[in-house]
Design brief:
The complex is a heterodimer.
Chain A (H helix, E strand, L loop, with lengths): L5 H20 L12 H4 L8 H12 L2 H14 L6 H26 L4 H9 L2 H32 L6 H17 L2 H29 L2 H14 L14 H17 L1 H8 L4 H10 L1 H19 L6 E2 L2 E2 L4 H9 L2 H39 L5 H25 L2 H15 L3 H9 L5 H21 L14 E3 L10 E3 H22 L23 H9 L1
Antiparallel strand pairs in A: 1-2, 3-4
Helix pairs in contact in A: 1-8, 1-9, 1-16, 3-9, 3-12, 3-13, 3-16, 4-7, 4-14, 4-16, 5-11, 5-13, 5-14, 5-19, 6-7, 7-16, 7-17, 7-18, 8-16, 8-17, 9-14, 9-16, 10-14, 12-16, 14-15, 15-16, 16-17, 20-21
Chain B lengths: L29 H5 L19 H24 L4
């Protein structure tokens, strides 16, 4: 009953209200002349220095869902869940190599979204529209999953029902509307301080109570040895190794293509800020590795996840562990860290999705002559709609549906890699071929995901992302991440299609960017300024 | 696991003309992209370190490896101070 958890609830509520207040005040922080443009509302004036970027991007990439779902996966399946560590190691060199070019070209041309870039690079509004829609569709369930993170800690505090979730999201929606990207940037400080505090305490305190790290791993091993499932254990089974590596690689590539990561990177002040951050952000990967191991601590502590509707909810394993292990007040702090951890990415994701809609659908198709102020107004409204949609998803549908959608989201966002990622490096691909490749990758990806069963959950379709190579006729038990296979189809179609389009002499779009633009830095002339100086 | 890199030191190259940040040092970033994917390097329980099976401590040690590579590339490609 909730009354046992009264201290936890009070601490949680106080911290939650504190950051909500910060969210509203954030509009005054580094106050711009006007909030009525996407550069200000949606990108914080493109002015964030190293520290703010570190907190913002860290708060953006390591979501509450990550903090809850990764240890839940380790709790349930063991080593396979640890892929989050190689995944978040690989992503930073990728950002260093790719997104830094996107920052430069966006700085020169005033791009706000990855689809803006694609439109200018390939001269194709259609391709840009596909990239924008893919981004929005992939981001929506991700926002919904942040609610799953909050729900898990609420359950652990004995709070059931949906109204606390709705209140939390209404507050979030209100201050994002008012303060734009400045709100999550400011809140990210509190979020990260709390997360670091909780994790440092957890990894020092809990293993000491459970008899040390060796015993924790041994009890996890004993649990997995006792189960009939062949794929679990504290190391990965032979047939799962390829999938482990490809899931890490595919997830890393997907992560830097997600619109919210792009938003975080574009908000930084200059190239060196990004480069420095790519060296400093792995500190979060270390924390994530330790968080993943909380799953084993939960096993060693004999935690039983909370049962809802007859099904044990593995996402509650770590919150319940905190509840058992920590004094009440500190468990409250830990829960607040997860709850606030949901707010930062949810805000950035809704801003990113709203910007995609505004720039690549509204301005492109509905109101070509939109002013900067109209753009900002539309984005603010759409950010509200996006969040309302996320809440509706969680309330009206089985949360499992959001998890399935998130799985699909990772696979489909990867299909923008040839136009966005490779497009940053080369203009070789033909716009028509990129569209064909996108379609081929989407079909292949969705078809494979549909085929994957999950006997443990009693599902015939969309049971995971590990595709059996035996389904392709290979005589092996190996599995591979479906997103990588779909991407291979995509790239192959785009490459062959480019050769065909060139041979058929199909018209290609004009490239509005120049080679120099990809190295531009703070202080370099922007296109808008060049236009203005030419006009006067 | 040292930052030593067999590549030619890029510092001998003159600063690239016009606008380009082409540098051989960028190849060093392949290390933290490729090494974490090589599961045979770490997929075992022993040797344990402070109670951590090899699978865990080796992968966690890839994090400082990635940081070192990134810092080196950053220092070598920093533009205009």
């Amino acid at each position: 009953m909730a009354s046992d958890h009264i201290t936890e609830i009070v601490v949680f509520t106080v911290l939650f209200l504190l950051v909500s207040g910060m969210g509203f005040v954030a509009a005054r922080w580094r106050r711009p002349d006007t909030m009525h443009s996407l550069d200000e509302w949606g990108l914080g004036g493109r002015s964030f220095g190293s520290w703010i970027t570190w907190f913002l991007v860290g708060g953006d990439l390591y979501t509450a869902y990550t903090f809850v779902a990764v240890p839940a996966l380790v709790f349930g399946a063991g080593a396979a869940g640890f892929f989050a560590v190689p995944y978040t190691i690989i992503v930073y060199p990728l950002v260093f190599l790719f997104l830094i070019r996107l920052w430069s070209v966006s700085h020169v041309h005033g791009f706000v979204t990855p689809a803006d870039f694609v439109r200018a690079r390939f001269g194709s509004p259609t391709l840009a529209l596909l990239v924008a829609i893919t981004g929005i569709v992939a981001t929506m369930p991700y926002i919904a999953l942040q609610l799953v993170g909050i729900e898990a800690v609420l359950k652990a505090m004995g709070v059931n029902g949906h109204w606390p979730l709705i209140i939390a999201f209404v507050i979030l929606a209100a201050y994002t509307y008012q303060s734009g990207l400045r709100a999550p940037a400011l809140i990210a400080f509190v979020k990260d301080v709390l997360i670091y505090l909780v994790i440092i305490v957890a990894v020092l305190y809990i293993p000491a109570k459970l008899g040390g790290w060796g015993d924790i791993f041994d009890s996890a091993k004993a649990k997995f040895d006792a189960t009939p499932a062949p794929g679990d254990g504290i190391t990965i089974a032979g047939s799962g190794q390829l999938n482990y590596a490809m899931l890490a690689l595919g997830s890393a590539m997907a992560l830097f293509l997600y619109p919210h990561s792009v938003t975080g990177v574009l908000a930084s002040r200059n190239r060196n800020v990004i480069k420095r951050n790519m060296a400093a952000l792995p500190a979060y990967s270390f924390v994530l590795g330790l968080i993943a191991l909380l799953g084993y601590m939960a096993i060693a502590a004999g935690v039983k996840p909370i049962v809802t509707d007859g099904k044990p909810d593995a996402n509650t394993a770590v919150p319940v562990l905190f509840d058992h292990m920590f004094p009440d007040w500190f468990a409250g702090v830990a829960f607040a860290a997860v709850g606030i951890g949901a707010l930062v990415p949810a805000a950035i994701m809704s801003i990113a999705a709203a910007n995609l809609f505004t720039r690549n659908i509204y301005k492109e198709y509905l109101n070509r002559d939109a002013t900067e102020k109209q753009e900002a107004t539309v984005s603010k409204l759409v950010s509200l709609i996006v969040k309302a949609g996320a809440v509706a998803c969680i309330l009206a549908l089985d949360p499992q549906f959001s998890i399935d959608l998130q799985l699909i989201g990772g696979v489909i966002i990867l299909q923008t890699l040839p136009s966005v990622g490779l497009g940053l490096m080369t203009r070789w691909f033909h716009r028509g071929a990129l569209i064909a490749g996108w379609a081929g990758g989407m079909i292949a990806g969705l078809w494979m995901l549909y085929q994957i069963p999950n006997p443990a959950k009693g599902k015939e379709h969309f049971g995971g992302s590990a595709y059996s190579l035996s389904d392709l006729g290979f005589d092996t038990k190996m599995t591979i991440y479906a997103g990588i296979l779909a991407l291979a189809v995509n790239v192959a179609v785009a490459a062959i299609g480019t050769v065909v389009c060139r041979a058929a002499k199909l018209a290609d779009g004009a490239d509005a960017t120049r080679a120099d633009d990809y190295f531009a830095d703070e202080g370099d002339a922007k296109v808008k300024e060049l236009d203005l100086s030419a006009a006067t | 696991m040292t930052p030593d890199n067999p590549k030619e030191p890029a510092s001998t190259e003159p600063p690239p003309a016009a606008r380009s940040d082409r540098s051989a040092w960028y190849w060093l970033l392949l290390v933290p992209i490729v090494v974490p994917l090589l599961t045979f390097l770490f997929n075992s329980d022993s040797p344990r370190l402070a109670g951590f099976p090899a699978f865990y401590w080796i992968q966690l040690s890839f994090i400082p490896l990635g940081v070192v590579c990134t810092v080196v590339v950053y220092q070598m490609t920093k533009n205009r101070g």
